[in-house]
């Protein structure tokens, strides 16, 4: 039996117990047999690749219970915060003016139809069938609008609750999903519940669940993809551990190349989810690139850990190339499928472009795809040239600190007609993130970068991937009109950064009762601050009528007004 060597740079700091598979040298792992069902080599490989903490998840009945009950409870809270009085205000808020009406015509025509001039007042009054048969020029894919339409299918477009219920349901499900993601990522049920609780009370997550824009749907699909990538990491490493153990148990040795892992269903599922993300907004492409690359990098560290000598070459041939050949076509075909109603129609925008422009465009494509391509060229031109002035446009450098949140709705009652009990009442919906989550999370991001660079902790790469995909691209487009609410797509990763810092603090005080007690108190205080901030700002996230003085007291920064 061979000895598997590891790079000492991947070892955790002295005295820590991280549960990170890239942090423990193979020589420190004592071979054991659990229940006689696995060989010593198999147990050793599992602990090497996944970590003792991950393997211990669900080992007790109590943990198995709270693994589902804890996320369910915080999801219940999230649902109440997102569904309460959801139909208020009964008017098209901000870009709802586009997405709600587009979704309604999709449901009725199969494509986004045009409307007469100034249709909102009539639409809000219940005259929802005033659309025209002509197609409207839209610059986002259809999936998010189909999800919105699903909510209106029952109550109809006359119901503002129906406009928004799909966003509320998806935003609520994201809380449950993040709790499960964090539990797997940090190998802790308690930390999973903490992550779900923090997302449940975040302002951006709440507002984008109560107002029908596409960004909340995008956040959901990329979070689903991330969950699938985590599951793929777990399942592929278990498979690798089994195959390596088989070689070692038969008296062989791991040489220049390692075993093949076969078809990876979780990676395939991630590609489907990423195709659905791109079918919601094109910025899902950044997550497709980032998550695919991260998955392959995790494959490389796994092969290196088990002693594959030419691990970089092995990873490229048996992991990276298959990943590209599976994920990219799968995501593309899924994306094309989200346009099914456009292909099925004859009246969709530019649907007949190829027929009316013979010999133009990409001539080797079939007519339908040629029209589709030209439509996408037009959409690309629009997005890259968007630079109109807007009072709530924001610099993406300020997003982590929420320096310029987007005000979606503001109504002032100055004539005594308000019901707040003051001379002047207001109703406001401001997508300002929970300060406790975002400001503490920003500090935690610095900690995360440190542990990635200095400790090579794989969990840090998982936390930072959402920031790389969801935030960094916007830093490269400073001249484009962009808004802080775009950052809702990486709210889950801001939460994960904060929970990661909490997890590190617990791990680094293990075995020291006094220090650990202080850390637990600190975590409790941080969670309590987030809860109190959520209660404090909720009236401004949900459009409650309050006094002008109450509203003004919540404008902590002048840039919030």
From TrEMBL:
Family annotation (InterPro entries): ArnT-like_N (IPR003342), PMT-like (IPR027005), PMT_4TMC (IPR032421)
Record domain Protein O-mannosyl-transferase C-terminal four TM: where: 369-560
Pathway: Protein modification; protein glycosylation
All residue ranges annotated as the ArnT-like N-terminal domain in the record: 73-328
Subcellular localization(s) per the UniProt record: Cell membrane; Endomembrane system
Membrane association type: Multi-pass membrane protein
Any one GO MF annotation of this record: glycosyltransferase activity
Swiss-Prot/TrEMBL keywords: Cell membrane, Glycosyltransferase, Membrane, Transferase, Transmembrane, Transmembrane helix
Membrane spanning residue stretches: 65-84, 161-178, 185-201, 207-230, 323-344, 436-453, 460-477, 483-506, 518-538
EC number: 2.4.1.-
Disordered, as annotated region: 1-32
Principal subcellular localization: membrane
Family as reported in the entry's similarity comment: Belongs to the glycosyltransferase 39 family.
Designated name of the protein: Polyprenol-phosphate-mannose--protein mannosyltransferase
Organism of provenance: Paraoerskovia sediminicola
